[in-house]
Amino acid sequence: MSREKKDHIALSDEHNSRGIELADRGWLDEAIKEFNKAIELDPSSAHAHDNLATVYSEKKLFREALNEYLTAIRLEPDSANAHHNLACFLATHAGDMAVGEYQEAIQLDPEYPDAHLNLGITYADQGKDEEGAKELRIAIELDPKDPFPRHELAALLMDQGDYRSAISQLNEVVRLEPSNFEGHLDLGICYAQKGFYAEAERAYEKARAIQPEDLLLNYNVAALYALWGRPGDALEALRKAIAQDAPKVRGWLESDPMFEGLKGTPEFDALAHG
Predict the structure, then answer these.
(1) DSSP per position, the chain
(2) Which domains does the chain show, CATH number per domain?
(3) Tens digits of per-residue pLDDT, 158-177?
(4) What pTM did the predictor assign?
């Protein structure tokens, strides 16, 4: 290694150290300048790229941060630390980065239904229900014949306990896609929650015509009949569900209030506890 290269590496390390000090003090813009100087002097300095990525991440410059993390890995592919830091970044900021990219896509093309759809789903995953519902409704307006955003909106409304609004969306889902098993199943769940038991039964019958041996279907049919005061039918459906996956179903039954009317009866207790 030439003396000049050694000098550049030494000077690069000095800038990198200075960048770390500045970042620790919260002077992020100044730290970025120091890390860039370190990289300019020694482009192969993986730790300088990694440190620069960390500061970019703190400033919510996620695209720039991702590029620097990947550069650090390309320079030192066998570095456990580099892979760990990238993983931490993705685990912490992937959702926020996705939101930013979806928003940019929408700025470039406001009538891009898939961008609104996926932005809505991401918001919902982050617990931002109001923002998620807004984006999903825009996706529906832009592509009213696509059942998927309607189903996603219905799922969000169900999580909020707004079963009446979910029913409206799900009826349209199954109209647009009659073979949508999950649509019929969710519609039945919503009707049951609102006390419309006959309508729930009809929705479950349509779901059964598509997937007759589905575990969730049999369980929810059992719950419907338990609520409806039809214990014989409830126990028959529950037997089918338990035959499919007894540990899972018995775990659900431990805290499910829909079966309160059956708890304590010998037949139910035998199924619930084996």
Answers:
(1) --HHHHHHHHHHHHHHHHHHHHHHTT-HHHHHHHHHHHHHH-TT-HHHHHHHHHHHHHTT-HHHHHHHHHHHHHH-TT-HHHHHHHHHHHHHHHHHHHHHHHHHHHHH-TT-HHHHHHHHHHHHHTT-HHHHHHHHHHHHHH-TT-HHHHHHHHHHHHHTT-HHHHHHHHHHHHHH-TT-HHHHHHHHHHHHHHT-HHHHHHHHHHHHHH-TT-HHHHHHHHHHHHHHT-HHHHHHHHHHHHHH-HHHHHHHHTT-GGGTTTTTSHHHHHHHH-
(2) 1-93 (1.25.40.10), 109-207 (1.25.40.10), 213-274 (no CATH)
(3) 999 999 999 999 999 999 99
(4) 0.83
